[in-house]
Write a structure and sequence with these properties.
mainly alpha, three-stranded antiparallel β-sheet, two-stranded antiparallel ribbon, 13 helices, globular
């Protein structure tokens, strides 16, 4: 079964997903990548989204580094890397969220995540090319991201008198991912300590946002929010961190939270994972909470394979088969390639687009590549 699965994942990656982005997203005139692509690959918004361009640089450079040194992959990665180098930064060294096709600033988001994925892309591109200037910039951005997470005021997000201070799973994920990619093991203990704050043992779940003040836990919908995709994604990243900094207590907690997400977030009527859930099963502010999203299911498949690899417990394979069956029967577009991104609760596509300002060439190819590599080792 694992051998057949390996072939299926590789075929989807190299015959459907990557060709879609290589054929439709490259802007050879101005540099960078288009990410707003319709079902057939036509561009419907020419703006360049910084974090998705950084992600695509990482994807293409990783393929070049770990699959085969194909010049077309490296040339495409260069399109993105040089565009980001020349246009992504404001005078203070912060990253814009989006640019015009030609590279003029279009929008600025008061979050650190655009810089995170520029850093990831630069680090992998430096590994592919040997250009030390890109690695140096990635390290510089890593230091800034750490500062911005500790104090977001320089990003235009000052602390408010009535605001609740939260630890966010996304912040732990990005520090962990950058630390692993850049070989900065000194940052990993913070991630392993911080994740403990998010664990709710009564439900075996990780809060998306954990109030720093325990008295304010679950006071607002923000603090009750559960996102299965975040639990899956951060779990496999922290598994990698645990290989560097072993912590049996955190590892056991991650296995329990994976079980909790499978039980709590799976739609028992229609299948698939709800995008968001409230830990107390109260109303949520996110109107899209019952939708089924591409990245949640892609991350789930890889996380469950990682759990099986670490434990050899067959329950993880059984859950993987359940998720894989749903994912493969709903998301891949057999006619035009790549995956649908957004499904209604009943599994029908809510949009036929293949990319937008949040969906790009990243979660799907990364999950397919990493899963295929893991299956090969198994």
């Amino acid at each position: 079964m694992l051998k057949q699965l390996h072939g299926q994942l590789e075929a989807n990656l190299f015959e459907s997903v990557i060709p879609f982005w290589m054929n439709h997203s490259l802007d050879r005139e101005h540099g960078g990548f288009f990410t707003c692509l319709d079902r057939e690959g036509a561009v419907y918004d020419t703006r360049k989204y910084i974090w998705l361009n950084g992600r695509q640089v990482w994807t293409l450079a990783r393929l070049y580094n770990e699959v085969a040194p194909r010049h077309e992959w490296l040339d495409a990665a260069r399109l993105g890397a040089e565009f980001l180098r020349d246009h992504a930064f404001d005078p203070q060294g912060r990253c814009y969220f989006s640019l015009t096709r030609q590279g003029e600033p279009s929008f600025y988001q008061r979050k650190p995540y655009a810089a995170v994925f520029v850093a990831l892309g630069f680090a992998e591109y430096a590994r592919a090319t040997g250009d030390a200037s890109y690695r140096a910039k990635a390290l510089e951005l890593f230091a800034k991201v750490q500062q911005w997470i500790a104090d977001p005021a320089p990003l235009g997000r000052p602390a408010m008198a009535g605001g609740v201070a939260y630890s966010q799973l996304a912040d732990i994920y990005v520090i962990c991912s950058l630390a692993l990619e850049l070989g900065r093991a000194d940052a990993l203990p913070w991630c392993l300590q911080q994740i403990r704050m998010h664990y709710e043992p009564s439900r075996q779940l990780l809060y998306e946002n954990a109030a720093i003040d325990p008295a304010l836990r679950r006071t607002y919908p923000d603090g009750r929010l559960i996102c299965a995709g975040s639990i899956f994604e951060i779990s496999w990243f922290l598994f990698r961190a645990l290989d560097v900094c072993p912590d049996p207590e955190v590892e056991a907690m991650l296995f329990r939270s994976l079980e909790g997400a499978m039980e709590f977030c799976w739609d028992k009527k229609h299948g698939g994972f709800f995008y968001f859930a409230d830990i107390d099963e109260r109303p949520m502010l996110q109107l899209e909470s019952d939708m089924k999203l591409w990245w949640v299911h892609a991350e789930a498949m890889y996380a469950l394979l990682c759990a099986f690899q670490r434990t050899r417990n067959e329950q993880w394979l059984r859950w993987f088969e359940q998720v894989h069956q749903y994912t493969w029967s709903h998301f891949p577009d057999q006619a035009h390639g790549e995956w649908y991104g957004y499904l209604h609760r009943d599994g029908t596509p809510s949009h036929t687009l293949k990319g937008n300002n949040y969906k790009g060439c990243f979660h799907i190819p990364r999950a397919l590549l990493f899963s295929a590599q893991l299956l090969e080792r198994l």
